[in-house]
Protein: Exopolyphosphatase
Amino acid sequence: MFTSTEISEIQKLLTPEKKIVIITHYNPDGDAIGSSLGLKHFLKQKGLEADVIVPNDFPKFLKWMPESKQIIIADYKRKQAGEAIYNADVIFILDFNASHRSGNLVGPWIEKARAKKILIDHHQQPDDFHYVYSDVTIPATSQMVYHFIQELNEENLVNKDIAECLYTGIMTDTGGFRFRSTSATTHRIVANLIEKGADPAMITSNTWDTNTVSRLHLLALILGRIEVVKDGKVAILWLKRDELKEFGFQKGDTEGFVNYGLSIMGTQVAAFFMEDLYDDFIKISFRSKDEVDVNQFSRNYFNGGGHINAAGGKYMKTIEETIVDFKEKIEAEYF
Structure:
């Protein structure tokens, strides 16, 4: 957590005349959007205005959240996003640990910005900013935003909008409260958010009960060809670009697919490989159980990183070559 001195300094930065921007990572997920909008609504309760900027578009199943339509998508509104970052007095950096994680467009803007930069994030090895709240033991940045509000002694400002956004972020990044990092403290915070107006049934329905025919077709395709190696300990799933096009892929359609591999009895690692829809690289998602560290594995071999049990990567070979390389590396590293 921030020190008491840092909290005092941050509080002095949060005044009505200051221009505040909240930025999250490339390909924003539920925790990225939930924590960003939750913080925006909290600042609004304090009488402050803040712009939320995301590098690129985010899934439709997250667009029900309060004021999600006011999010500035840098890919679509480059000038507006760039000017907001350039003119900002304070920049909150949420759910990512280094400027380059916000992409080739927004990342350099963050580095050049004159603003005071405040990091709130739970990924390993954060870069150095003016103020850093980094804790890899906490399952979601949305939970960290709630802790930040507590440290400001302003829990009384948490309203229904804040509660809905932060609940969504915590729910999605804990896999529905299933992941090992979910703690008793997490559940106490979730209980507080429910008391403040978050409706678990509504949020779950809006966020997860959103299957489309195209998504189910893609899911059926990869489930029909899951490959299991290493005596059943490693599951491999993949999708090619032409398959995405064939079934009308939309952003967010493959969210959670990697978890199906990890749900197989005896599996300790799941890897999902997908050709990018437009560029010649492979997007990779890793998940693991127990002490199997896919964060370091991804950092070492696949240009990525994340958490011990959940990480991503990017590879510049064909999907066939990528899977071959993965099998070789996994053979050498684990079990």
Q: What stands out?
A: The CA atoms of residues 117 and 130 lie 5 Å apart.
